[in-house]
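Case study 2.
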Amino acid sequence: MTRKTFLALSLLTLSATLAAIAAEEKVVIQYDCIPNYANWGGVTALYKKVAGVTVPPDPKGSSVALAALEKEKDSPQADTAYYSGAIGFLAAEKGLHEPYKPKGWEKIPAALRDPEGRWWTVHTSAIAFVVNAKALGGAPVPRSWKDLLKPVYKGKIAYDDPTWGGTSFTLVYGVNELFGGSDKNFKPGLDYLKKLDANVSSYPRESVYNSVLRGEIPIWINADGNGYKMKWVDNGPVEVVLPAEGTFTMPLVMGLVKGAPHKEEAKKYLDWLLTREAQAEFAKGYFLPVIPGAMPPEVASHVLSEKEYQRARALDLARMAAASDALKKAWTEQIRGTGR
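Prediction:
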């Protein structure tokens, strides 16, 4: 056997071995698994350590995850998906989830889970202003929705495109309700957002966590937990503000995809996400665990007071889900249509 033939055979053997290892590796595919959101990077790394199962990162926001599941309905690629509450509710209503009640399901408050197990909450957050105070250029930290309209914040604000992310859909729906709109009347909220548009630099369709931390985006309207993590974990000059007029709570939910290709592994993973171990790991990203008693005291001591959170109102998930397509369309035409 020549040296060249030997090397060729060795490479073929190595390739076959790697392919076999890859085929044997246990995986769970989760849509909307953004490492810097809710500490999914830490949670999936811990699961790999304790269970030997890989859950790859996925950049889809809630709305994009929903759209992907609809497109792949006849040949599912994902095992589970993570969404803001209303988008997850809508995915279940569209028949994209298989009923499943993970271990610990009964510990979840009844209002935060579907009775049939088509979706359930893993943790909660609230919409807040995540402010890099150092990047404001001397402007004061905004304290209200009204403040955000001031010319001093021109070009300093971003919030995600609500057709991409469920957090921002919660923001858009909530602002509409806050200013007197309803699931049938979007005018009050869109009127406010049209005014706000003068100060908005972008409507991202990807996580801008690092851009905010670096000060490239001074004000990000997003989940409170992301701001706390920037401040206390990444040591950023960041302040979390719950606007004076009020804000909105947001359950973050999951479901088992109907026809999941790795169904049994997905069930084990979903069971684990409700354990105290996993819930405490989520809490390191400053999202409030859904299982009572899982919040580490050192994390709880870093968030705003309970009195501040009295301004955060719950939103009706069924009504939000019913309004989803129409509100996203109206926002796209009236706000995104400005060119950003």
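The chain has a mean pLDDT of 91.
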